[in-house]
Q: What sequence folds into this?
DNA sequence: TTGAAAGCGGTACCAG
DNA sequence: CTGGTACCGCTTTCAA
């Protein structure tokens, strides 16, 4: 076990002045050699480059930001690190790369305080804008009202602030899921919701109930059982459902993770998916493809959402025109967990 | 569809000067009222606070950083956003919170260039240090040699640079996994490796071969089939294994995702896990608990690794003593995919 | 207790 | 083509 003494930090980094002094030229020249080489005599540029190498000089970005007033960074603020978020982030990142930005993930753990902090950081010049990825209720603290940075909502729209958004319509998507089940011939369809405090959960339930009503099935509310966005909650909710005197032939789960839990419960009860009960998930997480059986689910175009959100943020920053609210379409991806109901 | 005109960005944020002018006092006083109120007459402090509120003033962090020379931010640089990374990050975050830092995720997509860029950003004052989470081979570009920022490696040690690290010993861990199988009575044990370019893959294989040799089974190399860290690769590798004239009774998979693929292949062949073939994974990803059956795996203490890495980085930044290389223990978590071999 | 001013490390304008 | 210098917004001596 090697104990490291309070080791010296890397020595003071070279500054532009060091380079200027080394070459006995002005800092202005050094600065130009680096950012606008075409303005200088090639020989000068070369000398500067060499000195820069020799001294290991790197421009201090903080100073650069301060002077320029922009950072080329956007904060991607997310409530929770979830697999669902991957693809969204990939889309953001792709666009950021193309547009010359760095996208940095700021995780809040659903803590409104930290969310506020990150907004502050951005408002205070640490980044140029924020992409607010929402999968749950958001609370942006009032203190920031004066100086909210350029923001676009990703996945959701925001209840209170009227931020520009790139999102999907959960009501429509839930309707699609329900219709898929209906079209297979199911009538006794149950729904396991996500965390009811999350607006998306209530919208999905809303879509479910509406689709059922449109098919002539009233009081579908009674077929809804409250859950959370975890396999454990899905399992518990499915167990409740399995106790009822009359079993559903299909279940619309508010997320893929819930679906995984539901399937486990069904199997534990000695029943089979989809033979006895069909299951449809939501989100099209990687999990739904990996799982055995592969889960039929509502695909949310996460990559595109991320991509377009970043593009929109750029337009805002560049003061170009943009569409305030963009809604992307969802689709049902049919895989192995849905089938027509068994003939009784 | 509402087209938003090139909307005005939030108006120029108030600066410390605005506040000073508003109150007809000096900027120094404003600065002090905010950071060292005890130095001022309480009345002054109050007046300043009010003006700050009124104008919506927030100190510009960039300017503050420039002056103070530190940011309170650490970059968590990761090659790929993976579930495995979650818990590591949670640990980092917990420690960061306790120590008064913000941990920001910088994703490189395994692109050495971007990795270099982030290092630069930090070296150039955008953050105080970096936690380099490695799940694969890393290439830090030479140009940064002069001014590498304070860095600690997380999960791995670095082949070339001798960064301080908090990690596990993959050779030992692989030995544990293999021994578990051996102790159950298995002798025909196969191993599906991860991407062979990743050092961790070769270490795991090394541990496997060593454990087999120690049990008197020579040439275990022949039981190794190359894969990648994905379910698809795991499935393909397992299919290869299933073609062999004599089947293994157990398979040590280099990751949980590989295990998932292997299980799929086994089932597709009409065999059962663990009745016909036992499977052990590695990493203890969330997936291994969610999956049905739950996967026996080697637990890597991801949260602790993250936590301790952040603590170490703080010590480095504070110029305190620290242990250069910290190795945390791993354990086999026995779940549902391993059992004694069938009596033939 | 408060103010004036230097300076953090750059960039860009204005001269020459 | 190059140098001098003001300035970005803030903190912190040094004086008053």
A:
């Amino acid at each position: 076990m090697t104990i490291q003494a309070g080791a010296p930090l890397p020595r003071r980094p070279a500054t532009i002045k060091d380079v200027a002094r080394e070459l006995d030229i002005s800092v202005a020249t050094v600065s130009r050699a680096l950012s606008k080489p075409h303005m200088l005599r090639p020989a000068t540029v070369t000398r500067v480059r060499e000195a820069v190498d020799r001294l290991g000089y790197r421009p201090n970005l903080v100073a650069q930001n301060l002077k320029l007033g922009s950072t080329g960074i956007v904060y991607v603020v997310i409530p929770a690190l979830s697999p669902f978020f991957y693809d969204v982030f990939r889309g953001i990142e792709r666009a950021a790369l193309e547009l010359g930005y760095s996208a940095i993930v700021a995780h809040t753990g659903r803590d409104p305080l930290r969310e506020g902090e990150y907004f502050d950081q951005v408002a205070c010049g640490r980044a140029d804008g924020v992409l607010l990825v929402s999968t749950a209720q958001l609370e942006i603290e009032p203190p920031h009202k004066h100086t909210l940075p350029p923001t676009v909502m990703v996945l959701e729209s925001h209840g209170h602030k009227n931020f520009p958004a790139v999102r999907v319509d959960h009501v429509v998507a839930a309707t699609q899921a329900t219709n898929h089940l209906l079209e297979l011939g199911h009538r006794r369809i149950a729904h396991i919701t996500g965390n009811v405090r999350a607006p998306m959960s209530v919208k999905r339930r809303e879509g479910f109930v509406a689709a059922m009503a449109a098919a002539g099935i009233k009081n579908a509310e009674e077929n809804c059982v409250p859950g959370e966005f975890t396999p454990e909650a899905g399992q518990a909710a499915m167990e409740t459902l399995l106790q009822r005197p009359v079993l559903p032939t299909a279940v619309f789960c508010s997320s893929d993770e819930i679906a995984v839990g539901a399937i486990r419960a069904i199997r534990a009860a000695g029943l089979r998916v989809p033979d006895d009960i069909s299951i449809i998930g939501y989100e099209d997480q990687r999990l739904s493809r990996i799982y055995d059986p592969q889960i039929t689910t509502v695909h949310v175009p996460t990559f595109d959402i991320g991509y377009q959100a970043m593009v929109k943020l750029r337009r805002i920053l560049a003061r170009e025109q943009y569409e305030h609210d963009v809604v992307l379409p969802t689709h049902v991806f049919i895989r192995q967990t849905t089938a027509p109901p068994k003939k009784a």
